[in-house]
Design brief:
Layout: H1 2-30, H2 33-62, H3 69-74, H4 81-86, H5 92-112, H6 118-142, H7 166-195, H8 202-235, H9 246-271, H10 275-297, H11 311-335, H12 350-382, H13 390-407, H14 421-427, H15 429-445, H16 451-474, H17 482-491, H18 494-519, E1 521-528, E2 532-535, E3 538-549, E4 554-563, E5 571-580, E6 585-589, E7 591-595, E8 598-609, E9 615-624, H19 627-646
Antiparallel strand pairs: 1-9, 2-3, 3-4, 4-5, 5-6, 7-8, 8-9
Helix pairs in contact: 1-2, 1-6, 2-5, 2-6, 5-6, 5-7, 6-7, 6-11, 7-8, 7-10, 8-9, 8-19, 9-10, 9-12, 10-11, 12-13, 15-16, 16-18, 18-19
C-alpha cells in the first residue's frame, strides 16, 4: 500500500505543478497577489509531494520490495545498505524522480525568494511550474518508478557493480542539483523576456537576482563532476580521470555555459551591460542540462553512465527539449531588440576582458557539443560510425581554453568602463615572471619533449599567482602599513575572496592535469608471487593473492608492496578483482598509494600462468604525478562558490521590495 501512496504523491505533484503554472498565469494577468501567492503555495506543495514520493521509493529499496519492477531490476537483498539507498537514483525511472525532486525543490525555493518584483517573480514561478509539469508528466506516464511486478521475484537483479561505490552514491544528487539548478536561471530569463522590460535600470537588478542561483548551481555541478571524475579514476581501472565520454561531456557543457553566465551576470549587475548575452547564457545553460538528460536516457549512447536504451522515451525527452528550448529561444529572438542594457565600455576594460573570456568559453562549449553530437548525427544520416576522442578535443578545445586562461588574471586588474592595460600588466609582471620560471623549470626537470606539459605547468602557476596578485593589489600589500593591509583584507567582501579561490583552484587543477597527463608513466607485466613491476620512481611487488568474500561478491585480492627501487619507503596496498554472482559481472578495485601529490595506481588483471606452470597475474602500474591536484583544484573552486554565496550582497532577499507591477 505504501508504494501506491508514493505513486499517488507523484501524480499529485504533477497536478500541483500544473496548478502552479495556471495560477501564476492568472495572477500575472490579473495582477492579483492572492493568485500569485496561491501559485507559490502550489510550488511548495509540489516539492513536498515529490519528496514524499522519493522517500517511498527509497523505502522500497531499503526493504527490498521486489514487487516493484524498479527495485527488482536494480537491487538485491545482499547489497550493502548504502547502495540500496543509492539504487534509488541508479536507474532511469528512479533518477528521473530525483530530477523532479531537485526541480520542484528549486521551484519551491524560488517561490520563497524575497526581493523580486511581483511580475518577474510570478512569471518565473509559472515557468518553473511548467518545466516541473513536463518532467513530472514524463515520469508519471512513461517512466513510472512504482510499477508493480506480478508475481514478484524472490531476488532482484542488483545494481550495476560499477555503480556500487561511495563516490557514485553521492555523485548523482550533487550533479542533478547543479544540472537542474540552472532551471531557475532559465525561468528568470524567460520571465524577464515575458515581462518585456526595456528600461536599462532593470537589468542590473536582474543580474543581481540571477547570479546567486547561477553560483549555487555552478558550485554544486563542480562538485558533482569532480566526484564523477574521481569515481572514473579509481573505479574503472584504466588509469585516467577524463576520457571525453559523451556522457561526461553532457555534464561539462552546462558547466562551461554556467561559467560564462556567472561572468556575464557580473557585468550586467555592475554596469547594466550585456543583458541580452546574459539572458542567452541563462537559457543555454539549462538547455545543455536538458540535452544531457536526453543523451543519458535516450539510448543514443552506450556508456556505463547511461540510464536507458529506450528510443520511445528518448523521443519524449527530445520533444520536451525542443518545446522548452524552442519556445524560450523564439521568445529571446522576439525580445532581443529590446534587450539594450546601458554601460558603454572601452575594449580595454574589465567588461571587455569578461566579454572576451566569455566568447572563448562559449566557443569551447560549442566545440564540446560538436564533438559529442557529430558522431551521432553522422551515424543517423549515413550509417557510418566514427569515434571523436581525446586527440580531437586536444586539438580543438585546448587552444580555446589556453587563451581564456591567459586572459583571466588580467580581467580583475582592469578598471570598469575604461582600463589601463599597461598598469594591469605591470601589476601582473611578478606573476608572469614566476609562471615563466615554473614552465622553464618543468621543461628542464623532465624530458625536453614534454615542452607543452611544461607550458601547461606555467599556465597553472599564472592562474594561481594572478588570482593572488589581484587580492594583493586590492589590500595594497607591500604598499601600505601592515595595519592598513589587515584592515583592507578584513574589509574585502566574501565575494572577492570567493573569486580568488575559484580562479586559484582552476590554476591548481590545470597544474595537476598537465603534469599528470604529460609525465605519467605506465608499466605492466605478468608476475607470479614475489614478482615486481617498476613504474617511474616506484617498484610494486606482488606478495600474495587470496580469495575473500564480500557482502555480495567474491574477490581475488592481491596484496602488494609499493616501494622505492632501493626498497625504501615501503607501503602495503590491496587491489582486487570482484565477481558479483547476482549480475554475473566482474569488476576491478584499484590499489591506490597516495604519495604526497602523487599516486601509485595498481590494477590486478586476470590469472595466467608462467612458462613453468606457476600461477601468475597481470599487474598494471601507473605513476600519476600530482594527481591529487586534479581533484583538489575543483574542491577549492567549489569553496570559492560557497564563500561568494555567503556574501550578503548576493542573498536573494536583498533587493527591490516586492510590489505589484
Amino acid at each position: 500500500m505504501i508504494v501506491e501512496f508514493g505513486a499517488f504523491a507523484l501524480i499529485l505533484a504533477l497536478c500541483l505543478a500544473a496548478l502552479q503554472t495556471g495560477l501564476s498565469i492568472a495572477g500575472r494577468i490579473r495582477r492579483s497577489p492572492v493568485l500569485a501567492g496561491a501559485a507559490q503555495g502550489a510550488a511548495l506543495a509540489s516539492a513536498g509531494a515529490v519528496a514524499v514520493a522519493f522517500a517511498v521509493l527509497i523505502h522500497a529499496f531499503v526493504v527490498s520490495d521486489f514487487s516493484v519492477a524498479n527495485v527488482a531490476a536494480n537491487s538485491h537483498t545482499d547489497k550493502p545498505m548504502l547502495y540500496k539507498v543509492a539504487a534509488a537514483w541508479g536507474s532511469h525511472e528512479s533518477s528521473l524522480v530525483l530530477w523532479c525532486l531537485v526541480m520542484t525543490g528549486f521551484g519551491g525555493a524560488l517561490a520563497r525568494a524575497r526581493g523580486l518584483p511581483f511580475g518577474l517573480k510570478t512569471s518565473a514561478v509559472g515557468v518553473q511550474g511548467a518545466l516541473g509539469s513536463l518532467f513530472l508528466a514524463f515520469a508519471v506516464f512513461t517512466s513510472n518508478p512504482f510499477a508493480r511486478l506480478d508475481p514478484a521475484p524472490i531476488q532482484g537483479a542488483s545494481l550495476n557493480p560499477l555503480l556500487q561505490d561511495p563516490a557514485l552514491a553521492f555523485h548523482p544528487p550533487l550533479l542533478y542539483a547543479g544540472y537542474v539548478g540552472f532551471s531557475v536561471c532559465f525561468s528568470l530569463a524567460v520571465a524577464a523576456l515575458i515581462e518585456g522590460r526595456a528600461q536599462a535600470s532593470f537589468w542590473p537588478a536582474w543580474g543581481r537576482w540571477v547570479r546567486p542561483w547561477a553560483l549555487a548551481s555552478w558550485g554544486l555541478l563542480t562538485v558533482g563532476i569532480t566526484l564523477g571524475a574521481f569515481w572514473a579514476y579509481y573505479e574503472l581501472g584504466w588509469g585516467g580521470w577524463w576520457f571525453w565520454d559523451p556522457v561526461e561531456n553532457a555534464s561539462f557543457m552546462p558547466w562551461l555555459a554556467g561559467t560564462a553566465l556567472l561572468h556575464s551576470a557580473v557585468v550586467t549587475e555592475r554596469r547594466g551591460a550585456l543583458a541580452g548575452w546574459t539572458v542567452f547564457l541563462a537559457l543555454l545553460a539549462f538547455t545543455f542540462s536538458m540535452l544531457g538528460a536526453f543523451l543519458v536516457r535516450s539510448g543514443v549512447l552506450t556508456s556505463v553512465h547511461a540510464f536507458a536504451v529506450d528510443p520511445e522515451r528518448g523521443m519524449m525527452l527530445l520533444a520536451i527539449l525542443g518545446l522548452t528550448a524552442g519556445l524560450a529561444f523564439a521568445l529571446f529572438a522576439w525580445r532581443a531588440p529590446q534587450l539594450k542594457g546601458g554601460g558603454l565600455f572601452a575594449p580595454i576594460s574589465r567588461e571587455g576582458a569578461l566579454v572576451l573570456n566569455n566568447l572563448f568559453l562559449t566557443a569551447a562549449a560549442v566545440t564540446v557539443l560538436l564533438g559529442t553530437l557529430y558522431p551521432l548525427i553522422l551515424e543517423a544520416a549515413t550509417g557510418a560510425t566514427i569515434s571523436v576522442g581525446p586527440p580531437w578535443f586536444a586539438i580543438t578545445f585546448t587552444p580555446l581554453m589556453v587563451i581564456a586562461f591567459l586572459i583571466l588574471p588580467a580581467g580583475p586588474m582592469l578598471a570598469w568602463k575604461r582600463g589601463d592595460a599597461r598598469g594591469a600588466l605591470q601589476r601582473l609582471a611578478l606573476a608572469a615572471g614566476l609562471a615563466l620560471l615554473a614552465g622553464l623549470a618543468g621543461w628542464a626537470a623532465f624530458e625536453p619533449r614534454k615542452a607543452l606539459a611544461a607550458a601547461g605547468l606555467g599556465l597553472g602557476v599564472w592562474l594561481i599567482l594572478g588570482a593572488l596578485a589581484e587580492v594583493a593589489d586590492r589590500i595594497r600589500l607591500f604598499r601600505a602599513p601592515p595595519a592598513e593591509v589587515g584592515r583592507r583584507a578584513r574589509g574585502l567582501p566574501l565575494g572577492a575572496w570567493g573569486m580568488t579561490l575559484a580562479h586559484a583552484g582552476l590554476g591548481v587543477f590545470v597544474m595537476g592535469a598537465v603534469v599528470e597527463t604529460g609525465y605519467r608513466i605506465e608499466a605492466a607485466a605478468v608476475v607470479a608471487i614475489g614478482g615486481e613491476v617498476e613504474a617511474g620512481p616506484w617498484r610494486v611487488r606482488l606478495n600474495a593473492v587470496e580469495v575473500v568474500e564480500g557482502p555480495n561478491y567474491l574477490a581475488e585480492q592481491g596484496r602488494l608492496t609499493v616501494m622505492r627501487p632501493d626498497g625504501a619507503a615501503a607501503r602495503a596496498i590491496v587491489a582486487e578483482r570482484r565477481f558479483f554472482p547476482a549480475g554475473g559481472q566482474t569488476t576491478t578495485e584499484v590499489g591506490l598509494d597516495f604519495r604526497g601529490l602523487d599516486d601509485v595506481y595498481v590494477v590486478m588483471g586476470e590469472r595466467r600462468a608462467t612458462p613453468a606452470g606457476e600461477p601468475a597475474w597481470t599487474v598494471r602500474v601507473w605513476w600519476n604525478p600530482w594527481a591529487r591536484l586534479i581533484f583538489l583544484g575543483p574542491a577549492i573552486m567549489a569553496l570559492g562558490a560557497l564563500l561568494s554565496l555567503l556574501d550578503r550582497r548576493l542573498r536573494v532577499g536583498i533587493g527591490t521590495r516586492s510590489k505589484a507591477s
